[in-house]
């Protein structure tokens, strides 16, 4: 190495190297700790003593860990909401009110359709409870089973056998149709529990359902014979009514003039023309008040019972089906306009001979959609077809999903829900064993195995009316006589005198005009998130966002550049070694003018080129004439002594091995020729 290069390398080694020009990552980290604004890193380098240095390392790492922890909490809680409740006083829109008679159809109109079913039901009740005037229990039990086969045939009992299990016995049951005990195949399902098990504390009554190929059966048992008979009757009732046309069912149900005796709203009279008919599969004709007729919504100007809806209903208890319903009254539901009224799910029952007052409080909720919550407004992101002609709600989605699964698995639609496009209602003529499929599917739906609960989402905005119900006897004993007489005169089409057990009074009103709104809003924003992260950095490390950028530059960009530079130098050295020209082997016995050592280039010889020359041959007389010495120009080529080749005695002739070590071996061979 030349002297200048040695001095340059020594200066470069002694001078401090800063920033990304540092030769190693260690030097880069040292430079960063000495120049950064984070005090903990600087104390690691400048502290004296191992203990202090270890303590500052521990403190710095702890602070970094706390920063990561706090920032992770801030980021994870970014999509949280804050709930604000606002209460304001204003004139409120009156909700839609749907009223249904608990009895869906007049019994006199459907008696012919249900005659055979009624006959078998009465026979089953006599078999189970022994409806006779015999007082002896032993005689009643002896005759009850034989009386089950009297009368008409057992068409419905053949389709769905009714069975009675004695206490502690599960393998055998007494058949209502034959009155004999028989073996029971299939599992036993107790409907009062969520688990499949055998209930052994008392006798059970149930019915057996089987699949299409009768390979699998299930017995659905009830602790009460009344519930078993009603459920068995309801299955056959849906089978029969599914085959009746919609127009005929509307005619068999109650008209608005029959159901509504009087109407009064917000201080003004109203009548059946203010109600819209809505046919429900299980409740017949229902009527909705304020269902946005003529694109107008009624509103109320004051709170209190005098400014709400007041109606008197005629329910006609004599027309009730004794096996389908066991109570007298009506069902009412308060809902939004264009919202489907789920009478069977959330309806409120009102009693006959009573005045039912329902006070309302309006609560309006607004939820944030994704990513804050899983809610939707108009079926976005819900892969289920809406079979209801109404706005989206969670109940509509769940019922639509179950009906779609029913059509897919069982091949027909369930009677109590709207009919999907291209499907038919289930009945035992076209689908003999649909009931087993329905029970199995319904059980899977309740347990969440159909996936409907995961596919359906909540509605982002909805209105909810909190109802407060109070009852009073109506009419009173002192006013019963004249009031019933006047109501009978008002209802001219009714030939019989009205009875108070056929009437019910309903009052629905706002208790006050205070509307409560529950609104969700984002609890965080990008500005708040950056401010909170900056506060954590300043608290634990006394740095800012600029320090974070500096850390990214040093620990990632500069460190990677140092590593890349080191690898590049290694690759260049490897490539240089690979591309180095290998030394050729010595040619065999060069002589005379063929001696390559005598071809002197214009450039001076170097130590490297001397090493590549072949060794000098042994002393011998050349076989060729001597070369022309005047062309060699040795004196001109070696007129200047090379550095490091001086001899201690100028007049002493150097030995051949010494001269070969400093000069050209070919020159040594030439000096030993004869005559020199």
Automatic annotation (TrEMBL):
InterPro entries: ENaC (IPR001873), ENaC_chordates (IPR004724), ENaC_CS (IPR020903). It is a multi-pass membrane protein. Its main location: membrane. GO terms for biological process: intracellular sodium ion homeostasis; sodium ion import across plasma membrane. Keywords: Cell membrane, Disulfide bond, Ion channel, Ion transport, Membrane, Sodium, Sodium channel, Sodium transport, Transmembrane, Transmembrane helix, Transport. The chain crosses the membrane at residues 54-79. GO terms for molecular function: ligand-gated sodium channel activity; WW domain binding. The keyword Cell membrane applies. GO terms for cellular component: apical plasma membrane; sodium channel complex. The keyword Acyltransferase does not apply. It is found in: Apical cell membrane. Residues 640-676 are annotated as: Disordered. It catalyses: Na(+)(in) = Na(+)(out). This is one of the three pore-forming subunits of the heterotrimeric epithelial sodium channel (ENaC), a critical regulator of sodium balance and fluid homeostasis. ENaC operates in epithelial tissues, where it mediates the electrodiffusion of sodium ions from extracellular fluid through the apical membrane of cells, with water following osmotically. It plays a key role in maintaining sodium homeostasis through electrogenic sodium reabsorption in the kidneys. Additionally, ENaC is essential for airway surface liquid homeostasis, which is crucial for proper mucus clearance. Belongs to the amiloride-sensitive sodium channel (TC 1.A.6) family. SCNN1G subfamily. This is Epithelial sodium channel subunit gamma. It comes from Sousa chinensis.
């Amino acid at each position: 190495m030349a002297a200048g290069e040695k001095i340059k390398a020594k200066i470069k080694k002694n001078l401090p190297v800063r920033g990304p020009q540092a030769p190693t990552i260690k030097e880069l980290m040292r430079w960063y700790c000495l120049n950064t604004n984070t005090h903990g890193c600087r104390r690691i380098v400048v502290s004296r003593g191992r203990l202090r240095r270890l303590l500052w390392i521990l403190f710095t790492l702890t602070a970094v860990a706390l920063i990561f922890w706090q920032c992770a909490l801030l980021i994870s809680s970014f999509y949280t909401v804050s709930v604000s409740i606002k209460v304001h006083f204003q004139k409120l829109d009156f909700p839609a009110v749907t009223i249904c008679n608990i009895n869906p159809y007049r019994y006199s109109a459907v008696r012919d359709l249900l005659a055979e079913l009624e006959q078998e039901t009465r026979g089953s009740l006599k078999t189970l409870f022994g409806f006779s005037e015999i007082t002896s229990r032993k005689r009643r039990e002896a005759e009850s089973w034989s009386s089950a086969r009297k009368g008409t045939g057992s068409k419905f009992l053949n389709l769905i056998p009714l069975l009675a299990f004695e206490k502690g016995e599960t393998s055998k049951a007494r058949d209502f149709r034959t009155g004999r005990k028989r073996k029971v195949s299939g599992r036993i399902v107790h409907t009062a529990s969520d688990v499949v098990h055998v209930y052994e504390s008392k006798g059970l009554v149930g019915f057996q359902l089987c699949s299409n190929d009768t390979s699998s059966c299930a017995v659905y048992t009830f602790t009460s014979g009344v519930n078993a008979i009603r459920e068995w009757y309801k299955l056959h009732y849906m089978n029969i009514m599914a085959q009746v046309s919609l127009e005929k069912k509307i005619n068999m149900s109650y008209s608005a003039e029959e159901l509504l005796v009087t109407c009064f709203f917000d201080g003004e009279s109203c009548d059946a023309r203010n109600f819209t008919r809505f046919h429900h599969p299980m409740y017949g004709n229902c009527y909705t008040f304020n269902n946005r007729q003529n694109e107008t919504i009624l509103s109320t100007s004051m709170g209190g019972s005098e400014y709400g809806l007041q109606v008197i209903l005629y329910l006609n208890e004599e027309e009730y089906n004794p096996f389908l319903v066991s109570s007298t009254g009506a069902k009412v539901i308060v809902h939004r306009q264009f919202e489907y009224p789920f009478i069977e799910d959330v309806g409120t029952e009102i009693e006959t001979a009573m005045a039912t007052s329902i006070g309302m409080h309006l609560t309006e909720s607004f939820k944030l959609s994704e990513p804050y919550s899983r809610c939707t407004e108009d079926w976005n992101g819900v892969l289920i077809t809406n079979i209801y002609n109404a706005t989206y709600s969670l109940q509509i989605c769940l019922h639509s999903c179950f009906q779609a699964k029913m059509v897919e698995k069982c091949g027909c639609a369930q009677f109590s829900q709207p009919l999907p496009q291209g499907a038919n209602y289930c009945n035992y003529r076209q689908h003999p064993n649909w009931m087993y499929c329905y029970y199995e599917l319904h059980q899977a739906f309740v347990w969440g195995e159909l996936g409907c609960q995961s596919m359906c989402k909540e509605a982002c905005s909805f209105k909810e009316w909190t109802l407060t119900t109070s009852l009073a006897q109506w009419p009173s004993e002192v006013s019963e006589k004249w009031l019933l007489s006047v109501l009978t005169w008002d209802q001219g089409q009714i030939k019989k005198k009205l009875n108070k057990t056929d009437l019910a009074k309903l009052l629905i009103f706002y208790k006050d005009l205070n509307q409560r709104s529950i609104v969700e809003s984002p609890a965080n924003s990008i500005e708040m998130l950056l401010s909170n992260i900056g506060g954590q950095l300043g608290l634990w490390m006394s740095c800012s966002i600029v320090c974070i950028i500096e850390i990214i530059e040093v620990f990632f960009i500069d460190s990677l550049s140092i590593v890349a530079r080191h690898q590049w130098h290694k690759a260049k050295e490897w490539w240089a070694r690979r591309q180095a020209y290998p030394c050729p082997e010595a040619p065999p016995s060069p002589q005379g003018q063929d001696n390559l050592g005598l071809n002197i280039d214009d450039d001076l010889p170097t130590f490297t080129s001397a090493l590549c020359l072949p060794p000098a041959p042994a002393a011998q007389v050349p076989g060729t004439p001597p070369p022309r010495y005047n062309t060699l120009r040795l004196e001109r080529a070696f007129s200047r002594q090379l550095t490091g080749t001086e001899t201690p005695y100028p007049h002493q002739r150097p030995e051949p091995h010494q001269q070969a070590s400093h000069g050209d071996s070919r020159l040594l061979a030439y000096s030993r020729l004869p005559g020199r």
